[in-house]
Design a protein that fits this description.
- This protein is α/β, with parallel strands linked by helices.
- Helix 2 crosses helix 3 (80-93).
- Residues 8-14 have low confidence and may be disordered.
- The chain binds a DNA duplex through loops.
- One of its GO terms (molecular function) is endonuclease activity.
DNA sequence: GTCGCATGACACCTTACATC
DNA sequence: GATGTAAGGTGTCATGCGAC
């Protein structure tokens, strides 16, 4: 890799600056990754991502006030932390002085981040100061930080996403010198808690507390780049592009080699990895009895641990139960699981005893299921000793919620069972998670982002993916398959926009969502609506201005002239004489006509309509054949249009049913029938007939969409208008 | 009138934190 | 450690709207 990289950002050529990629801090981070045996390829890709991200941040060496907002999009459990740590190192080497990390809204997440950041920058304290709002309260003030800066030390402050913590960090930037120090702000899990949850509130307060605090932080720091880091960017992309947290740029971070996520677990092989809990089973929450599926999950957990040990893999092995968000449920599940594990431990201890047979049946059944799934296994007899060992050395059931934090106890074991709710969601990594039992789901509509973040079973599991399993309900299995399709399409859209150089804010906000029981994100943060196109869209308003009419007509004439040889005259009657230009590509007409046409600010047709349509077609990977039809192009038309340009009559002409009449006519709505699989753009040249002084013809559009297309488009959603 | 859907009000759960 | 408060998230229910 070259040492100095001249960066030419993809979308904004005013902002060219040079990035040095082998400075002191970057090398520290890189060395630690090497020590921790990251594959070379992964290290290079992490550094490349950091360069790409930093290149879109403001140049810290220019003395001006500027700020930008970006989003770094990764995959759940794909190691986004390494990426933003590298970014901080690179930013320091290139002139940034301070890094503020909003490290999650729970203490366990903050702690996880603090530990990771400290481990990644094993540098001289005289070069870098790492502080966190929980432990260094007395140092986080303008005076002390200014002194550190004077001593030429870089600063990282990691804070909890809570009002007081953020305000504490904000306060130091009241100091003028600090306020102009180039600062990079990392918002970890940036779709959670930071965005405005009061956007649609009827209260007087239109800003949620954390959002308000973050905006204050942003305003205080005169030169900064604010980077949201998340695997579920739906909310960030769906909020108003005028919102200060709406990203100006986005960077996709492909997961490294060996990552197993949505496509492995919930794509074509979902039946192998996801086991559906039968609906007629007794509930885990019943006062007595334990569902068969729980025994199955436990047995597959111990068998799979035995398999890994047999293969020489003695790493951590974990089982997670996520039954519900309620603490009372966790307690009852812990009790049930503990009773089973205790009894299995007793049986495993005396495996020659007849009592062992009942345990053995469970284990053999789990073994057979793995065999049936095509997992390469030795004989059960060869595995048995390893399996029983796993049972004997298994931890107590770790309750993981606000009452009890199991993380410390789990370090004492290699084989761990966890039970939790909200504390085992987003952000948290459970080492060696192989089996998950999850039945938590809203009774009605679930959010895609929240649901996806519960997938703690994703991660770098290539070495033992064959034995990983998820036990869940049919509904949750379906949810994840829909999310898999949604996520693929989302990445595709952003990648394509990147290749085409489309600025992030201009990417069509169209997303795939094929499930009626899923919405993309919380409705208090951002709303969506179905991509619902009618068969016909008849333009109901124009700019009533002769110059505009001439310009719009010129666009149409140019298309006509460029395709002279393809024009076909279609005569239905004496007065119904149309001109057809068949078989154009939608994308071409979009570029040459709809992008340039001048639309009124009111009315039902504007560039946004065609942008949405185009984004929808891109998702469908289609560029539909489109015909242009100049309707009654010689005689033209007159309609009742008011002075504001609003069409008061019906634009489309009805049929003349008299078959014997020389004026028999099928009607404008039937014109697409013979070529019903194509889009038809009808051009109606219309003059106002009730107001004087407007003696010119204005082109109005009628857009016909084939039902196949409108149906296919209805599986997508876009930003809500309200 | 029925159905599906969006929306808002409200209650409850979970978490963090301040106070005693 | 117990208690109360603030904040964010989830779930349920009533209501209203438009399509049929």
């Amino acid at each position: 890799m070259s040492d100095v990289i001249k960066v030419i950002p993809k979308t904004d050529n005013k902002n060219v600056w040079t990035i040095k990629s082998d400075g002191y801090y970057s090398n520290c981070v890189k060395n630690v990754m090497e020590e921790e045996d990251y594959p070379d390829e992964s290290i290079n890709s992490i550094i490349q991502n950091a360069i790409e991200t930093l290149s879109q941040c403001p140049d810290p060496n220019i003395n001006d006030e500027s700020s930008k907002t970006g989003i770094v999009i990764g995959k759940v459990q794909s190691g986004k932390t390494s990426n933003f740590i590298s970014l901080i190192g690179l930013a320091f080497d290139n002139g940034y002085q301070i890094a503020v990390v909003l490290g999650g809204n729970k203490n366990n997440l903050l702690e996880q981040n603090v530990t990771r950041i400290k481990n990644s920058f094993r540098v001289d304290a005289m070069k870098l100061v790492i502080l966190d709002t929980n432990k260094n309260d007395d140092v986080i003030n303008a005076n002390t930080i200014s002194e550190f800066i004077k001593q030429n030390r870089k600063i990282i402050i990691i804070g909890l996403k809570h009002q007081k913590h953020i305000d504490k960090m904000s306060d130091i930037f009241n100091n003028y010198k600090l306020s102009i120090a180039p600062t990079i702000i990392i918002d970890d899990e940036g779709d959670q808690a930071t965005l405005n949850t009061k956007k649609y509130s009827k209260d007087k307060k239109k800003m949620s507390t954390i959002y308000e605090s973050v905006l204050k932080l942003k305003t205080r720091i005169k030169k900064h780049c604010f980077i949201s880091v998340t695997a579920t960017p739906q909310a960030n992309i769906l909020i108003d592009t005028l919102d200060l947290l709406s990203p100006d740029f986005g960077v996709l971070v492909d997961p490294g080699i060996g990552y197993c996520g949505l496509s492995e677990f919930h794509g074509d092989n979902q039946d192998k990895y996801v086991k559906v809990i039968p609906e007629d089973e007794i509930s885990l929450f019943d006062s007595c009895g334990i569902p068969i599926s729980v025994y199955e999950a436990l047995a597959s957990f111990f068998v799979s641990n035995g398999v890994r040990k047999y293969r020489g893999d003695f790493g951590n092995h974990a089982l997670l139960f996520h039954p519900s968000q309620r603490k009372v449920d966790h307690a009852s599940v812990v009790e049930k699981l503990q009773s089973v594990v205790d009894s299995w431990k007793n049986k495993a201890d005396c495996y020659e005893d007849i009592a062992y047979q009942s345990l053995k049946r469970h284990l053999v059944s789990a073994y057979d299921k793995y065999k049936n799934d095509g997992v390469n296994l030795p004989s059960f007899v060869d595995l048995e000793e390893f399996i029983l060992d796993s049972i004997k050395f298994c931890s107590k059931i770790h309750l993981t919620n606000s009452d009890t934090d199991a993380s410390k106890n789990s370090e004492l074991y290699k084989t761990n069972i966890f039970v939790g709710g909200n504390m085992v969601e987003r952000g948290l990594t459970i080492k060696g998670l192989a089996i998950t039992y999850i039945i938590r789901r809203a009774k009605t509509t679930s959010n895609v982002d929240n649901t996806e973040q519960r997938a703690r079973w994703f991660g770098y599991k290539e070495a033992y993916i064959d034995i990983c399993r998820v036990y869940t309900t049919q509904q949750i299995k379906d949810d994840f398959h829909h999310i898999f399709e949604h996520d693929e399409a989302l990445w595709d859209t952003i990648k394509k926009a990147e290749q085409q150089g489309t600025p992030f804010k201009e990417i069509g906000r169209v997303f795939k969502n094929n499930s009626r029981l899923l919405r993309l994100t919380r409705s208090n943060v951002a709303r969506t609506q179905k991509l619902d196109f009618d068969q016909f869209k008849s333009q109901n308003s124009v700019i009533l201005d002769e110059k505009v009419a001439i310009e719009n007509n010129r666009l149409l004439e140019k298309i006509k002239n460029d395709n002279k040889e393809k024009l076909i005259n279609i005569r239905y009657s004496r007065t119904q004489n149309h001109l057809l230009l068949p078989n154009l590509k939608f994308s071409i007409i979009k570029k040459d006509l709809f992008n340039l046409y001048k639309y009124p600010t009111t009315g039902n047709l504007n560039k946004g309509f065609f942008d949405l349509l185009e984004a929808g077609f891109q998702h469908l990977k289609k560029d539909p054949i489109t015909d242009i039809l100049w309707v009654r192009y010689e005689t033209k038309e007159e309609r009742n249009i008011d002075e504001s340009g609003r069409m008061l009559s019906t634009l489309m002409q009805g049929h003349n049913p008299n078959v014997n009449s020389p004026d028999f006519y099928i009607g404008d709505r039937k014109l697409p029938d013979e070529r019903a699989d194509n889009i038809q753009v009808q051009v109606h040249l219309v003059k106002p007939n009730k107001i004087v002084g407007y003696d010119f013809y204005l082109p109005f559009f009628v857009i016909y969409l084939p039902s196949k297309l409108t149906e296919a488009l209805s599986s997508f959603v876009t930003k809500g208008e309200k």
